[in-house]
Structure formats: structure tokens, C-alpha cells
Amino acid sequence: MATKSWRTEDWVAVYIGFFILAVILAAFSYKWFDLGSLRPSFRWTTDSQLASSAQSWRAAAMNFATAVFDINSSNNSVEDSKLLLIRS
User: Is the pTM of this model over 0.85?
Assistant: First the structure.
């Protein structure tokens, strides 16, 4: 039984893991993949840019709240729906 211990499920998982690591190391060592071109282009946002976007965010939030109010008004009273909107 000792000769077959290297073929158990646990050891097969270890071998597969080493194979995956070897393939990844080879891929990046030999430049099969270039991650340099995948860099994100994040930039800082100034306060004036953020303020100019705030109005559209507020409008979107109000549209969402109106839609929720319309859905809830068919099931509950108007006062219950207003309380639901205030709590959430």
C-alpha cells in the first residue's frame, strides 16, 4: 500500500497545484503575457469635478426613491411608504 500512496487524491491535488504554479511562472518569465499594458488609468478627482457629478447622483437617488415609493404605495399606506424611505 505504501507504493500507491503518491497516487491518492491529496497528492494528485498537490501535483496539479505545482503544475499550475510552474505554468504561471513560465508564462511570466518568458513574457508570454505582458501585464504592463493592463495598467488602470486612475486619476485624482478634484472637488469641483465631484460637485458637478453630485447633482446627477442626487437625481438618480430621487428617481430610485420615487420608484420604491410607487411600488410600496400599492401594498401599504402612504405614511408607511414614507417611513420606509426615511429609514432606508
Answer: no
Query: Residue 71 burial (CB < 10 Å; 0-12/13-18/19+)?
Result: exposed
Sequential DSSP letters for 33-58: S-GGGG--------HHHHHHHHHHHH
pLDDT tens profile 50-70: 888 788 888 888 888 787 776
First CA to last CA distance, the chain: 63
Cell of 82: 414614507
3-state helix, strand, coil in the chain (%, to 5): 75, 0, 25
Would you give the DSSP letter of residue 72?
H
